Amino acid sequence: MAFLSIRNVFKSYFLHGKRIDVLRGVSLDLERGELVSLIGPSGAGKSTFLHVLGTLDAPAAGEVLFEGRSVFSMNDAQIAEFRNRTIGFVFQSHYLLPEFTALENVAMPALIQRGDRAKTYAQARELLERVGLGARVDHRPGELSGGEAQRVALARALVLKPAILLADEPTGNLDPATGEGIHQLLRDVNRDLGITAVVVTHNETLAQSMPRRLRLAGGQVTDA
Amino acid sequence: MQSAERQTVYRWGLVWSGALVAFGGAVLLGVAVSRSNAWAEVSQALGLSVMGWASLLQSLNALALVPAELSLKQPLPLSGTQYLVAGALAWLGGWGLLAAGLRRAPAPTEGPSPAAGAPLYPRLAGYRDFYWSTLGAYGGGILLAEWALIQLQSLLSSGAQSVAQGEASGGSGLQLAPPWAFAVSLLVACSISFVAGAIGAARARRLSLPEATIGVFYLGLPIPIMLTLLDRVPALQLALGYRLREVTYVAGLLGRPELGYWLVFGLLVLMLVLGINSGFVAAGSGRLDLRLGFELFVARRHVAVFRPSLLLGTLAVLMLGIIPPLIIYGIVRAVEAAVERTRIRELGLVDPLAAAASLNRLKLREQSPTMMMTALSVGGVGVGVMALIIVLSVMSGFELDLQKKILGTHAHAVVSKYAGDLPEYPKLMEQIAKVPGVVGQSPFITNQVMIVSEGNVDGVVIKGIDPDTVGSVTDLPGYMLPGGSLEYLKKPELLTPRRGPGGAGSPMLDDRPAGAAPPAGGQPEEAEEEIDPIIGSMTKPAQEQVLPGIIVGRELAAAMRVVVGDKVNIVSPLGTELGPSGPMPKSRAFRVVGVFYSGMYEYDAKFVYIFLDEAQKFFEVKGANGIDLKVADIDDARRIAADVTRQLGGYPYRSRDWSETNRNLFSALRLEKLVMGIILSIIIIVAAGLIVATVIMLVLEKRKEISVLKALGVPDGGIVKIFLAEGLQIGVAGGLLGLLSGLAWCLFIEKVGIKLDPEVYYIPALPVRIEPVQTLLAVVIAVLVTYLASIYPALKASSVEPVEGLKAE
After folding, report:
1. Distance between CA atoms of B586 and A57, rounded to whole angstroms?
2. Do the Cβ atoms of B318 and B737 come closer than 8 Å?
3. How much of chain A is in helix, strand and coil states, percent to nearest 5?
4. Using the beta-carbon criterion (under 8 Å), do A80 and B705 form an inter-chain contact?
5. Of the residues A111, B455, B576, B659, which has the fewest C-beta atoms closer than 10 A?
6. DSSP single-letter state for residue A55
7. Residue of chain B whose alpha carbon sits nearest to that of A26
């Protein structure tokens, strides 16, 4: 039984009443601890695929099985909890909550679980130090640079030690040097924490550096 | 290539004809009701209601019923039942026809999409349109709540009621005072309604508004409609009046029972809606989660309501009006800006970078539009609550004032017989004294008579009293103005007769005899003799004769132009002597031995008091007409009165308390207060509209954040809770500010006082009485309304799809 498997997933968009089939029966198996890159032309549906994988978007048909269990057959609260505990997201822009400090942002997933505050903050502080932002703990997102904010977002995705990390062009908005730092961090957490990571990217060299490479084109995902 | 989706197709012919038939059925039903002439009365009764039903009913009436009735040249030989049956059938059939007009489109003939056959997305498969169980919970819940309210109200207060009715009852039932029984049963009914709503919503995992509408309309509405019709339809009154008398009694306290029924119904529906929402929030996503810590944490960051500057500023606006705080704020900001500018320029001369950072910090402090909206919403709720508290407190003050004055001159309760006098009153008084709660009693005789002074006539209520005990029942001894005394009633000879015309305050009286008999100066006895023919034969000069005493009110004394020592005649039309043209009016002379001033115009102008023994002689009454009672707790007067009746053995004795004897006055006051409360609540509703706008703006502003929170694992219910908490924060802040400023204003009115023209209002200053329950109620209502107002935006927020906000960039 695969760790995470996608079975016959369909997803369409409607643009001016016309249906655009983005995913046409995608099936895929991912193993625990895999580090996977996903490439494909713009508008091929890479983000949609990632959203369906992360339960942010419901497929029109098909199943996503996590350890053999269909995630979409759970109710809202269970899906939310699954998302909270099992999946970490990193997006193209950081999507930090502007009213909260870096520390609070990192701690947010644990706060949603209503865990012990002191312990949560200690963990978050540790993570921030690990991504090299120990000095920026009390800054708001508006006072951080793009690279710093993205590192905070990465720390936020990792705070509950999720089984799956989904990254949607995490370095798309960053300069190559900063981007490379983020990539290195991704590789580190994959190696150190054994997190299964799917990274959508346009960066060919980054894609090539991943152990497994997927290509999304024509509504189908294939190993590149 | 089309999807396999099957859309709804409307066959408009069927839909319209169905609607027409159903409408015809409604008209027939209306005619059936109007046969018993109730229709016009219903619309009339609702004519002044605030609910807006009236216009609907009246236009329906005008459009359909009037032509329908006119077209019937003579009343058909059918009674109302046939109309009722035909109307109901047409009504149902019409709906059936209408439903038949809504059909699913046929399946598309084109081939299936590539996804055909793939497993259906499980949550779609579990989706259902209509939940019968939820309908049952909503409709049944509100019906159960109404039933429970009626039953509990009857049960809890039946003891007191049956005793008051003079029935044999050994104290069964709990005998709560009706208002308390009503409060308890209302609380129970509200919780039933709330729980039913919560259960229904939890079952359906959504709000299920169609179910709620149908439940409320078809199961909830009939009872208030029936209660409204109760007074007007004799058959209903006969069948149900007896069972519902407790309910109608409580509603009758308001003066307009219908208003009471519909307000209570509205409250039950409100509780149902609250329950539905709470049920959805708590369990809508499949799990009951009542914890709020995280949601409050987020909500507090979104709308920072509890900031000292915002709270103080709003409080200042509420207390002082808008202009003065605005001026102060403007001055402070101007000074601050000037100081900051100089500081930054000086800093720039030293270190340009530090100056830039300082400038940046200054910019960051500027407020966002939502902050402004938040402040406005808080202020709006605050103004509403403040106005409610002040107006209701002033009206309570008036009520208390009135009550004090009425109870000062009137007894708390009156014991009398259904017919006849009470010759046995001393024995009765001994028995009554044993009833706990009775602290004073005094026998009396009362009647309507004419009072005649020199040239003036007025109709008054005369009351024969016992000067020794009257002080234990009313405040009359305390109202006596200096110069007269209650003692003189018993012993009129103690009052030294006024000698000479130089008496104070009646120059007119002295002028007239002087004009009538110019040469007779210094002969006042003669002047008195001249008026004697009014009374009849008089052998002794009136001034020297010892006449029985009478006490009149200040206003009456002024109108009759009499002072202490003057003589007045009391004329009763109920004479026993027969004259040539029937019974002769009886007349008797009294001497004014005292003037009282209660402060209540009606009493000061309409009441006169004489000695009980004189009244017995004058009206030929044995003993007394009744016994005035004073009770320890005026709010408990009804029950104590019932106890007294029981102590006396019921019929033929009866006792009525002050709220019964002055029922119209107090119910008018209560109705006025209620209507005032409703009108002022509209301010809060306007403020609630502001809150809706504010929270919607917040939702729009935070769409991205909502998506992120969802991606991080906050369930839909959590998002709802966050935005409900934001609305509630505004409501609570506004409510508390309103409470503070309202209490402060009340205190100001009480301590400093707002002068009133005593000629017009008969009281020197605006009275204020802060009633804790009513004040708290105003705040609770405001918070409830803001909670309701934030439901819609909160639901909107929860329906933001996670991908939606994440894409928008």
Report:
1. 98
2. yes
3. 40, 30, 30
4. no
5. B576
6. T
7. B115
Token pair recorded at residue B91: 């009504």
CB pairs < 8 Å spanning A and B = 120
Q: List the structure tokens of B120.
A: 């259906």
Across the interface, whether the CB atoms of A25 and B114 are under 8 A apart is answered: yes
Which of helix, strand or coil describes residue B622? coil
Beta bridge partners of A220: A217
Domain-embedded: residue A174: yes
- What lies within 8 Å, CB to CB, of B532 at 6+ separation is B538, B542
Q: Tokens standing for B605?
A: 């102008």
In a domain, A181, yes or no: yes
Q: Which of B787, B617, B762, B557 is nearest to B688 (CA)?
A: B787
The alpha carbon dihedral of A128, A133, A136, A142 has a sign of negative
Q: How far is A74 from chain B (nearest CA, A)?
A: 8
Alpha helices in B433-590 (DSSP H): 476-479, 487-490, 507-516, 524-535, 554-560
By C-alpha distance, the chain A residue nearest B126 is: A73
For residue B718, the chain A residues in CB contact (below 8 A) are: 80, 112
Residue A93 forms contact with B (CB below 8 Å)? yes
CB contact under 8 A, B713 and A60: no
- Contact yes or no for B712 and A81 at CB 8 A: no
Find the residue in B nearest to A50 (Cα). B803
- Residue A54 placed within a domain: yes
Position A159 in a domain: yes
Contact A58 B121 (CB under 8 A): yes
Please indicate if any CB of chain B lies within 8 Å of the CB of A72: yes
Pair of tokens at residue B222: 């009939």
- Residue carrying the six token digits 């039950």: B268
Say how far apart CA A147 and CA B590 lie, in whole Å.
105
Going by the DSSP 8-state scheme, the letter that residue A191 receives in this structure is H
Closest-CA residue to A48 (of A14, A25, A23, A29): A23
Domain region containing A174: 31-58+75-223
Closest listed residue to residue B708, CA positions, set A137, A188, A112, A181? A112
User: Do the beta carbons of residue B211 and residue B200 sit within 8 Å?
Assistant: yes
Within 8 A of A113 by CB-CB distance, chain B residues are 713
Query: Which chain B residue's Cα is nearest to A70?
Result: B122
Which of A221, A223, A224, A222 shows the shortest CA–CA distance to A45? A221
Which three-class secondary structure state does DSSP give residue A125? Answer: helix
Average pLDDT over every residue of B60-64: 59
Can you give the CATH number for the domain in which A120 is found? 3.40.50.300
pLDDT digits (tens, 9 = 90+) for B407-418: 777 788 888 887
Residue-wise pLDDT for B251-284, tens only, equals 777 767 788 888 889 889 989 988 888 887 776 5
State the pairing for strand pair A69-70/A61-66.
antiparallel
Q: Where are the beta strands (DSSP E) in B105-168?
A: none
Sign of the CA dihedral with B135 first, then B141, B143, and B144 last: positive
Q: Do B715 and A77 touch (CB under 8 A)?
A: yes
Phi-psi region of B335 (alpha: psi -120 to 50; beta: other; left: phi over 0): alpha
Phi, psi (degrees; rounded to nearest 5) at B511: -65, -40
Q: Do B717 and A76 touch (CB under 8 A)?
A: yes
Closest CA relative to residue A165, chosen from A180, A176, A153:
A153
- The nearest alpha carbon in chain B to A95 belongs to B708
Residue-wise pLDDT tens digits, A35-93: 899 988 888 888 889 988 888 888 888 888 888 888 888 877 788 889 999 999 998 88
Binary contact (A84, B713; C-beta < 8 A): yes
Q: Which residues of B touch A83 (CB under 8 A)?
A: 710-713
Q: What are the two backbone dihedrals, phi and then psi, of residue B292, each rounded to the nearest 5 degrees?
A: -125, -10
Q: Does A187 touch chain B (CB under 8 A)?
A: no
Mean pLDDT for A196-211 is: 85
Number of structural domains chain A divides into: 1
Name the DSSP letter for residue B322. S
